[in-house]
Amino acid sequence: MHGKHKAYVATAAAVVLVAGGPAAAAAAHTTGAARTAPAAAPVRADVDAAGAVAAALKKYPGVVESLDKDGAVWHVDVIGKNGKHAELTVDTRSGKVFTENADNDDSGDGGNKALRGAKVTAQQAMKAAVAAHSGQVRSVEWDDDDDNGSRYWNVEIQSGNKTTNVHVDATSGKATVSGSDSDNDGN
Predict the structure, then answer these.
(1) pTM here?
(2) Could you tell me which residues come within 8 angstroms of residue 187 by beta carbon, excluding any fewer than 6 positions away?
(3) Contacts for 94 with CB less than 8 Å, ≥ 6 apart
């Protein structure tokens, strides 16, 4: 009986895909996800930081330079394998990726080269930061401090109404909580 139910849902989704286009397909997908989610857990459709990074890199392969949530979109800056810089936005609801700008923005200061050669990626930095301080990643930014040669990721973690900055060393992956602020503006 269980197999027939799956076949029916798949057939219904295929009909919606043909008849209603991408918006209807997204609605059908959300409905299916809600039906299979545990009853006690709230259904969250939002794309998180890791999902935004994965979607951006699928569209524009390379390394993430920064990530920042701004309302209903993630802004993701990527340095492509070809050295070109791309500014992408990822819709937090649909996960769709849009290219805002793509250019050859390596200004010759070596920052992109250092970023591309970093042992710790943005994705690894996010994991290390959340392990050091639990919460939701709100932003990640590559910091290449030329004064003392240190290279690290600055990861902003939100838990409740507090925002905490965690620095993650780009070589060792060591996470250090560097401060927290009360965040009452709801972002």
Answers:
(1) 0.69
(2) 69, 71, 138
(3) 26, 47
- Residue with tokens 């996960």, as numbered in its chain: 95
Task: Return the residue matching tokens 């849902």.
Answer: 9
Tokens describing residue 76 = 């993701």
Alpha carbon distance 57, 63 (integer Å): 8
Contacts of 103 (CB under 8 A, 6+ apart): 84, 85
Residue 82 CA: distances (Å) to CA of 56, 65, 70, 151, 160: 16, 14, 28, 22, 40
Between CA 27 and CA 32 the distance in angstroms is 9
Query: What is the residue whose two structure tokens read 């994705």?
Result: 123
DSSP secondary structure, 85-152, as one string: EEEEEEETTT--EEEEEEE----SSSHHHHHHH-SS-HHHHHHHHHHHS-SEEEEEEEEE-TTT--EE
Residues of the chain with pLDDT under 50: 7-20, 22-34, 37, 106, 108-110, 185-187
